[in-house]
Specification:
The complex is a heterodimer of chains A (405) and B (240). Chain A is of the alpha+beta class. Chain A contains 13 helices and ten strands.
Chain lengths: 405, 240
C-alpha cells in the first residue's frame, strides 16, 4: 500500500509537470468558489442591512394600522391607511396597557414642501407627538424636537430629516429658525434629525415632522390616524401587549373582527428576510453553476491525464500497484486541484466582497458558513469529478496499457 | 521454481475463439538463465504475461515458487508481481518526471516501504546494475538508451525478486549497448544467482542464456541448453 506522503508527492509532481493545464483547471474552481463567496456575501450583506435598519426604526416596536391585512400578502404590500378607524382616543387608551412604554399616534401624508429659497421637495410629512422620537429612536442633531406644548398649542413648527434639510437648504445651509411652506402654510424649522439611513422602503431621513394637532387641524383636515406606534418595555412583553391592544381596540370600535392590524418588527423582518433569503439563494445558485463548470473542467483534465499516462499506469500496475493505489493517485490529483482552487477562491471571493462594498457601498458579509460551504462543495466536486477518471485509470489492464501508444 | 503445466490461453476475437497457447509445459529452476525465443505471433508475449502474473491462463496450471497463481484475483496478482517479479521492458518504461533514484525505488513505494530504506535499496540495486553514481539524480531523458535500460534493470532488482523477466531488453538498443545489457544479465545470473527469463525473437540474443525454449504457433518446438553459449565480454565501458 502506498503511504499518504508518497501519494502527496506523486500528486505534486504530476500537477507541476503541466503547470499551464493545472493552472487553468484550478482557475475554473477559483472562479466558481470566489463567485459563491462574493454572491452569498452580497445576499448576507443585504439581509444584515435590512435587519439593522428595521431594528433602527425603534426597538420593541408595535405598529397599529387601520384596515385588515390580507393573510399572506404581508405588511409591505398592504397599502395601509386606506381605512379610517384609528383615533387619538384609541392611542390614549392603549397607553394604559401594562408593558407599554410610549404610544405615538401618527398621521402621515405626502406633501410638496418648499423653502423660502425656492427649493422644493416632495416628502412624507408626519404629524406626531413628543413620544414619536422615543418610539422611533429618533435623535436630534440640531435644535429641539416637537414638544407637548407645541402639540397643545397647534404650533406651526417643523423638525426636518437630514435629507429633507439638505434638499431644502443645501449642504451648508442652517435650516434652524428658517421658514418652510407645507401645503402653502408657513412653518418654522425648530430642529434637524440625525441621519439614520434608509431601509429601502421608507427613508426616515427624508421626512418632516410636525405636531399631531397641527397636522389634524391645519394640514390634513382629518383626525383619523395613519398609524399608532407602540414601544413596549421588553421583548417578552411584545406578545401580551399585542394581544391586549387588539382586544382593547375591538372593544372600543364595537366590532367583532379587528378593523385594524398590528404588526411587530419581527413580522416585517420575517417578510423581508424571506425576500433576501430567496435573493441570496438565487445569487448562490448562479455562482453554483460556475462551480459545476469548474468541476467539469477538472474531470476533463483528469480524463486527459489518464489517457496520456496510460503506459505509466500500465507500468505501475506491472510493478505491483493495486487498483486502489492507482485510483487514489488520480483522486488525490483531482482533490488537490480543487483544494488549491478552493483556497485561492475563498481569498479572491473575500477580496471581491470587500471591493464591492468599498466601491459601491453595498454592504457585504463573508460568513464562516459560506466559507465552510465553499470548502466542502469544492472537496465534494474534487471527489465526484475525480472519481470517474480515477476508476477508469484503476480499471486499465496492465498488458494493454503497457502496449498503448 | 516456475512450473507450467499444460498452459492454454485463448482470446475471443470478433466472436470467434482464438487459441494462442496450446498446452505449454516446462519448468524453470532457481538460478537458471532461460531464453524464450520465437517469432512474433508465436505466443511468447502471451506466455511472458502469464509467467509475469500479468495475465491468467485459460487452462492448465502455473505455480510460482510452489504457489498456484492461476486463480488469483487482480490485486493478489499485483502483490505477487510486487514482491516476486522484476520486469525489464523493451521500451524501458521509466517515469519521465522522476529521477533515476525515484524510478528505481518505485516498486518499494507500492510495497509501503519508508523512504530511507527505499533509497538505500535503490542505491544497492543501481550498483548491481552497474549504473554510475553520478547520474543518480538525472531524469530519464537525460540518459542514453543503455543507461535507461540499466535503470530499468535496477528497478527490476530493487524488490529482490525471485525472477527477473526481461521482454526484448535489447530491442531498442544498438548492438554494443545491447551487449552491455546482456552482460549485466549474465553477471547477475552468475555472480548473484538471479533467475532470469529473457524473451526475444533473436537467436543471437537468446544464445546468451543457458537454455532456450523455442516457441512456435503456441507450442514448444524445442527446449534445450545452449551448446556454444555467448559470453558478453563487453565490460560496461559505455557509460556515455
Amino acid at each position: 500500500m502506498t503511504r499518504p506522503s508518497d501519494i502527496f508527492e506523486e500528486t505534486a509532481i504530476a500537477l507541476l509537470a503541466n503547470k499551464a493545464r493545472s493552472g487553468l483547471t484550478i482557475l475554473g474552481i477559483v472562479i466558481g468558489i470566489a463567485s459563491v463567496i462574493a454572491m452569498v456575501s452580497i445576499g448576507r450583506g443585504a439581509q444584515g442591512t435590512i435587519q439593522s435598519s428595521i431594528e433602527g426604526l425603534g426597538s420593541n416596536l408595535l405598529t397599529i394600522a387601520p384596515g385588515v391585512l390580507q393573510p399572506g400578502r404581508g405588511f409591505v404590500s398592504s397599502g395601509r391607511g386606506g381605512a379610517q378607524t384609528l383615533k387619538k382616543t384609541d392611542a390614549d387608551a392603549l397607553a394604559n396597557i401594562f408593558g407599554v412604554r410610549y404610544v405615538s399616534p401618527e398621521i402621515q401624508r405626502r406633501f410638496q414642501v418648499t423653502s423660502q429659497a425656492g427649493n422644493n421637495t416632495n416628502v412624507t410629512v408626519i404629524g406626531g407627538r413628543e413620544e414619536y422620537a422615543a418610539v422611533h429612536a429618533m435623535e436630534i442633531e440640531n435644535g429641539i424636537f416637537v414638544t407637548s406644548a407645541n402639540d397643545r398649542s397647534m404650533s406651526r413648527v417643523a423638525v426636518l430629516g437630514p435629507t429633507t434639510a439638505q434638499d431644502l437648504f443645501g449642504q451648508d445651509g442652517d435650516p434652524l429658525g428658517k421658514t418652510i411652506r407645507i401645503n402653502k402654510i408657513n412653518f418654522k424649522v425648530i430642529g434637524v434629525l440625525k441621519p439614520k439611513g434608509g431601509t429601502g422602503f421608507f427613508n426616515p431621513d427624508d421626512t418632516v415632522i410636525i405636531p399631531l394637532s397641527t397636522m389634524e387641524k391645519i394640514i390634513a383636515g382629518s383626525d383619523y390616524l395613519s398609524t399608532i406606534a407602540i414601544s413596549v418595555t421588553a421583548k417578552d412583553q411584545m406578545a401580551p401587549v399585542k394581544e391586549e391592544a387588539s382586544a382593547l381596540l375591538i372593544e372600543r370600535h364595537h366590532v367583532s373582527e379587528p378593523d385594524f392590524s398590528i404588526v411587530s418588527q419581527e413580522d416585517i423582518l420575517g417578510a423581508l428576510s424571506q425576500v433576501t433569503t430567496t435573493f441570496t439563494l438565487f445569487l448562490a445558485s448562479i455562482a453554483g453553476i460556475s462551480l459545476i463548470v469548474g468541476g467539469i473542467g477538472i474531470m476533463n483534465m483528469m480524463l486527459t491525464a489518464v489517457t496520456e499516462r496510460t503506459r505509466e499506469i500500465g507500468l505501475r500496475k506491472a510493478i505491483g500497484a493495486r487498483r486502489r493505489d492507482i485510483s487514489l493517485q488520480f483522486l488525490a490529483e483531482a482533490i488537490m486541484l480543487t483544494f488549491v482552487g478552493g483556497v485561492i477562491g475563498i481569498t479572491l471571493g473575500w477580496m471581491v466582497a470587500v471591493g464591492i462594498s468599498r466601491i459601491t457601498g453595498i454592504a457585504t458579509i463573508v460568513s464562516l458558513q459560506s466559507i465552510v460551504l465553499a470548502c466542502s462543495v469544492s472537496a465534494v466536486i474534487g471527489i465526484v469529478f475525480g472519481y470517474y477518471p480515477a476508476q477508469r485509470a484503476a480499471g486499465l489492464n496492465p498488458i494493454d496499457a503497457l502496449r498503448y501508444e | 521454481m516456475i512450473e507450467c503445466s499444460e498452459i492454454k490461453k485463448s482470446y475471443i476475437v470478433g466472436g470467434a475463439e482464438m487459441q494462442v497457447l496450446h498446452g505449454v509445459t516446462f519448468t524453470i529452476r532457481t538460478g537458471e538463465f532461460v531464453a524464450i525465443m520465437g517469432p512474433s505471433g508465436s505466443g511468447k508475449s502471451t506466455l511472458m504475461n502469464i509467467i509475469g502474473c500479468l495475465d491468467s491462463p485459460s487452462g492448465g496450471s502455473y505455480a510460482l515458487d510452489g504457489q498456484d497463481v492461476s486463480l488469483l484475483c487482480d490485486d493478489e496478482l499485483a502483490d505477487i508481481r510486487n514482491s516476486n517479479i522484476g520486469f525489464v521492458f523493451q521500451s524501458f518504461n521509466l517515469l519521465r518526471r522522476a529521477d533515476v533514484l525515484r524510478n528505481v525505488a518505485l516498486p518499494l513505494v507500492y510495497a509501503g516501504m519508508e523512504r530511507h530504506e527505499r533509497e538505500k535499496r535503490a542505491k544497492d540495486a543501481l550498483g548491481s546494475a552497474a549504473f554510475p553514481e553520478e547520474f543518480w539524480h538525472h531524469l530519464p531523458n537525460q540518459l542514453s538508451g543503455g543507461m535507461m535500460q540499466r535503470v530499468a534493470i535496477a528497478r527490476a532488482l530493487v524488490n529482490n525478486p525471485l525472477l527477473i523477466l526481461a521482454d526484448e531488453p535489447t530491442g531498442n538498443l544498438d548492438t554494443k549497448t545491447g551487449e552491455a545489457v546482456l552482460d549485466t544479465f549474465q553477471r547477475l545470473n552468475m555472480k548473484e544467482g538471479r533467475t532470469i527469463v529473457l524473451i526475444t525473437h533473436e537467436r543471437y540474443v537468446a544464445e546468451h542464456a543457458q537454455r532456450i525454449i523455442h516457441i512456435r504457433d503456441g507450442a514448444i518446438v524445442e527446449d534445450s541448453s545452449v551448446k556454444n553459449r555467448r559470453i558478453a565480454d563487453n565490460h560496461h565501458d559505455e557509460t556515455k
